[in-house]
Structures are given as structure tokens and as C-alpha cells.
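User: Can you recover a sequence for this backbone? Please restate the input before giving your answer.

Assistant: Of course. Working from this structure:
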């Protein structure tokens, strides 16, 4: 038998990961998360965004309209259904939600239906248009305790943030963030762990940024600063088994998809 054939046989004998819905390649029971309690309905407003991030998981950009803009009319029946099922929060994501012309109508409808609303945004130019600012201020005045915004600041170092999102995006995002804070919106920050820093270093860097920018946020608190791990389609990630819950001392009910 030729050496090449030996190699082909060996490769065929290697178990292939992520093939069976219930078992890993070595036969262990795959970890799973069931819906524990329906709390949050996430709404994607469309894939278009004013910036094009290098590592965007959904490849949003000014020209990517693969997910067309959702309309307020399309969202309305889902709000009623989610309310009937006991959900308490609507989370809006994109793309950049503030680019959707129906977006603020959807936010208002969600608030008037009785939901709290969380908006994920880069706080850049789409949010800073005068008409948008005026509508946001009106919603804040009426629903202040139910409306919050999570602003994306990938890193506390502006150069690293701009390397991901484009030159000038860090300064622009800080201007929008300062406007939100000065107008008493409930705000938090979403950072990323793209640069392989340990969490303590990253939080310390954000703490210094918050102090310098006079932002009333605590970088040590998850509610003020959430750090998201990266999703790399090329990374050789392991399969997660049911035993991992006890090994990591984590409950599946604590996972986002158990409630959202």
C-alpha cells in the first residue's frame, strides 16, 4: 500500500467533530441548554451599519443589506406574542439599529407594550442626528427607567479600537457616549477580548478611560462593562460535553440562550 493511501486511511479514522446533535465525536453526551424562562426577545433591525468592523460576526457594513431593515409593522405581532409568553425585555441589535428608519418607532412600541428596552449601538453619527436625539430625549423623559443603551467600545486604547472599526470611530463613539451620559440615559459598555489581555488588565484600562472621560461607570462591574469573547470560525475549538457544566461549576440556566 502506498504511503499516500496510509495517510488517507488514517485521516478517515479520525472522528469528525460537530456532526451529531446529541453526541461529541468521542461519543460523550453533548452539552445543551434548554429554555428555562423566556425573558428577552432579541430583534435584529438589519445588517447595514455605518462602519465595517474587521471581525464582525455578521459582516455588517454600509452596503450589507442581507438582512433587510425590519419594519415596525413586522415587529408588532411579535411584541404581543412575547408579552403573552411572559417576556419582559426587548433587545435591539444590528447592524447599527439607528440606521433603520423605523427603529425609534419600534423602540417606542416596545416601551408602550410594557417592555424594558436595551439598545446595542456604536453611538456614532446615526444616533447623533438631531431628530434622533430629540426622539430619544422624549422617550427618556417618558420611560427613563425602562430604556438603556449598551455602547460598543472594543478597547480602551483608541488606536486598537480604530484598527477594528476605522479611523476616528473611537473619538466619535466617545462623543456619543458623553452625550448619553450628560443627558442621563442608562448606559453600559460592551468591550471585546480580541487582544488576548487578561480580564484584570482590560478592566483596569477601561477604568482609567472612564475616569479620564468622567463617565459614571464602574469597570469592575459586569452591569457597566461586559467583555465579549471572540468568535473565530477558523479556531480549533473543542466540543463541549454535559460533564463540562460541573467541571466549570456553571449552570446551563445561566447561559444567555436559557432566557433569550
Amino acid at each position: 500500500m502506498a504511503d499516500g493511501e496510509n495517510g488517507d486511511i488514517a485521516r478517515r479514522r479520525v472522528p469528525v467533530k460537530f456532526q451529531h446533535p446529541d453526541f461529541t465525536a468521542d461519543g460523550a453526551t453533548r452539552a445543551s441548554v434548554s429554555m428555562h424562562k423566556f425573558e428577552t426577545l432579541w430583534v435584529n433591525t438589519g445588517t447595514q451599519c455605518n462602519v465595517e468592523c474587521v471581525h464582525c460576526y455578521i459582516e455588517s457594513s454600509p452596503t450589507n443589506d442581507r438582512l433587510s431593515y425590519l419594519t415596525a409593522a413586522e415587529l408588532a405581532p411579535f411584541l404581543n406574542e412575547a408579552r403573552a409568553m411572559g417576556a419582559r425585555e426587548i433587545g435591539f441589535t444590528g447592524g447599527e439599529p439607528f440606521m433603520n428608519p423605523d427603529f425609534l418607532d419600534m423602540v417606542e412600541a416596545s416601551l408602550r407594550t410594557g417592555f424594558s428596552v436595551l439598545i446595542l449601538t456604536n453611538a456614532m453619527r446615526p444616533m447623533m442626528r438631531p431628530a434622533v436625539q430629540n426622539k430619544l430625549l422624549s422617550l427618556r423623559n417618558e420611560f427613563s427607567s425602562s430604556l438603556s443603551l449598551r455602547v460598543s467600545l472594543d478597547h480602551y486604547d483608541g488606536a486598537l479600537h480604530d484598527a477594528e472599526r476605522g479611523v476616528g470611530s473611537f473619538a466619535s463613539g466617545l462623543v456619543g457616549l458623553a452625550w448619553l451620559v450628560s443627558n442621563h440615559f442608562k448606559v453600559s459598555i460592551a468591550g471585546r477580548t480580541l487582544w488576548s489581555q487578561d480580564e484584570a488588565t482590560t478592566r483596569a484600562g477601561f477604568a482609567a478611560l472612564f475616569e479620564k472621560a468622567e463617565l459614571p461607570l464602574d469597570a469592575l462591574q459586569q452591569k457597566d462593562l461586559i467583555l465579549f469573547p471572540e468568535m473565530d470560525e477558523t479556531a480549533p475549538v473543542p466540543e463541549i460535553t454535559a460533564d463540562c457544566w460541573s467541571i466549570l461549576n456553571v449552570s446551563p440556566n445561566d447561559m444567555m440562550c436559557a432566557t433569550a
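That completes the design. The longest helix spans residues 130-143.
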